[in-house]
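lol ok so funny story. i was supposed to be doing the assay writeup but got distracted and ended up predicting the structure for this chain instead. priorities right. anyway since i did it might as well share w the group, maybe its usefull for someone
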Amino acid sequence: MATQIEITDPDDPRLADYVRLRETQLRRSLESEHGLFIAEGEKVVRRAVDAGYPVRSFLMASRWLAGLSDVLGGTDAPCYVVSEELAERVTGFHVHRGALASLRRKPMPTVEDVLEGARSVVVLEDVVDHANVGAVVRTAAALGIDGVLLSPRCADPLYRRAVKVAMGAVFELPHARFGDWYGAPDLLRERGFTVVALTPDEDAVPIERAVAHERVALLFGSEGHGLSPRWLRAADVRVKIPMAMGVDSLNVAAAAAITCYAVARSRT
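and the output, tada:
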């Protein structure tokens, strides 16, 4: 059972895992160095533990202890009990969902692991916003996509904001990061995937005519510029989402939701 430890000093070194959670650069360095990530909120903490991520510690206000009593009863990790005001001073934001946990990362699957047996995968090129990555992962999981593959510069799916937006789907849906981004299109084709690039270009094929393939890799580009010219050229087919009222593009998470739904419908 977790040992409950009351802490009143925001500079207590035992709270180091939770310091300044909104400072992205600091957190990247700290989390990479120590191999950890942060889960926020009762549901997400529970899903992380259920997925087998080892717990380093918990941080929560006393009123959240009862809701996670079963989780606390199944681990010997320390639970730091603090006031909500102190939690805000340490983390840099109001922890309105009351519970945080620091967990150890597990080894990320390889690209080959994710592709093995998959019929459909989402591929993200340089999507740098953590909320967008989390939303794409949550959508992909909900609509039956088998995995998510990331370019080297994509945001971290286990960063707190991504985990929160994904509501823990990042713990269940396999994801991996390409090492050789240049050779990725050829690798996907060698594994039998039809490479489908999403683009607003006028000469692209309407989406409903292009996603019904036995194995499909759905490519989505960065928030600002979309897919790079190289990936657009490398795709087997370029598709677009028909839009009205002069709207020329959608947020990458919205585009992924529509496309994943089209794939799901083509298979029912």
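Residues 184 and 250 are 25 Å apart (CA to CA). Residues 252-266 form the longest helix (15 residues).
back to the writeup now i swear
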